[in-house]
């Protein structure tokens, strides 16, 4: 608009110049000059106002830009850290997991998709729990037991109670798979020791000797402890079932009063493992080779 006004003023001056005398032309020129100056001043004023407005919003704009840049770099740093950590995992396993998960979620039926999502959610929960050195689940988790057995490289020290329920376990399919995994561990140089825990001397019978003999034939070292015959200083400690893998991780089963396995936990905290390792050593030293125990009187 200001430019149009200036052009109009210039055009008017041109018309007047043709009809006016010299003095009038000079006066008109002065007027046009003054008008031009006013126009320039208006334009400068607008420019100053725009610069002032820009300076007012510039800090906010800079802050937003800086925040965006910092957030972007943080995301890049997080992604870089993630991929750096991923390189420490078995590449084939991670790739297979990702590929299979995407395929099931994108192509499978709804129930399989939900099932796959639930498995991944549980895996994420377990991994998060393992960051603090332990993970728990309800009931007895045979998959964890077999996996830890397959991962052991040095030693497996295990206690085994022999209630009626536990005796039935050794005649089950999970027990066969467990013993097979221990046999394979022994083949790769792992020392496997099993300590049978019995309530009293009446449990030192032919069934126990046969069970221990079968396991010794697999290369497992066995001993037996009668709880009521433990020395007083040893009897005060833990006598429940637990397994120590490589003296670094514990697999533990909690039972109720009916000897039903109610929960499973895996612990890798250094102090916890140290105490379990020490406890196994105490019980092992207090035990005797299973094949040397006598038959209780009256049999």
UniProtKB/TrEMBL annotation:
Pfam families: DUF6879. Residues 176-291 form the DUF6879 domain. This is DUF6879 domain-containing protein. InterPro entries: DUF6879. It comes from the Bacteria.
């Amino acid at each position: 608009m200001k430019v149009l006004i200036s052009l109009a003023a210039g055009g008017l001056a041109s018309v007047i110049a043709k009809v006016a005398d010299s003095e009038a032309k000079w006066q008109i020129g002065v007027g046009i000059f003054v008008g031009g100056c006013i126009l320039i001043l208006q334009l400068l004023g607008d420019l100053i106002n725009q610069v002032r407005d820009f300076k007012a919003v510039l800090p906010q704009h800079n802050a937003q830009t800086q925040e965006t840049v910092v957030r972007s770099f943080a995301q890049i740093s997080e992604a870089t850290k993630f991929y750096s950590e991923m390189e420490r995992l078995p590449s084939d396993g991670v790739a297979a997991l990702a590929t299979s998960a995407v395929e099931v979620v994108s192509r499978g039926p709804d129930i399989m998709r939900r099932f796959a999502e639930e498995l991944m959610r549980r895996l994420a929960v377990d991994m998060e729990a393992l960051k603090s050195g332990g993970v728990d689940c309800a009931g007895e988790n045979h998959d964890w037991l077999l996996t830890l057995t397959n991962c052991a490289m040095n030693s497996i020290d295990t206690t085994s109670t022999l209630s009626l329920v536990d005796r039935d376990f050794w005649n089950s399919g999970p027990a066969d798979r467990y013993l097979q995994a221990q046999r394979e561990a022994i083949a790769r140089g792992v020392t496997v020791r099993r300590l049978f825990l019995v309530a009293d001397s009446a449990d030192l019978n032919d069934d126990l000797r046969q069970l221990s003999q079968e396991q010794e034939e697999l290369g497992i070292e066995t001993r037996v402890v009668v709880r009521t015959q433990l020395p007083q200083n040893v009897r005060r400690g833990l006598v429940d079932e637990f397994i120590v893998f490589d003296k670094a991780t514990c697999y533990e089963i909690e039972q109720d009063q009916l000897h039903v396995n109610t929960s499973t936990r895996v612990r890798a905290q250094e102090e916890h493992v140290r105490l379990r390792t020490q406890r196994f050593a105490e019980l092992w030293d207090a035990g005797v080779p299973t094949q040397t125990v006598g038959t209780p009187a009256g049999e």
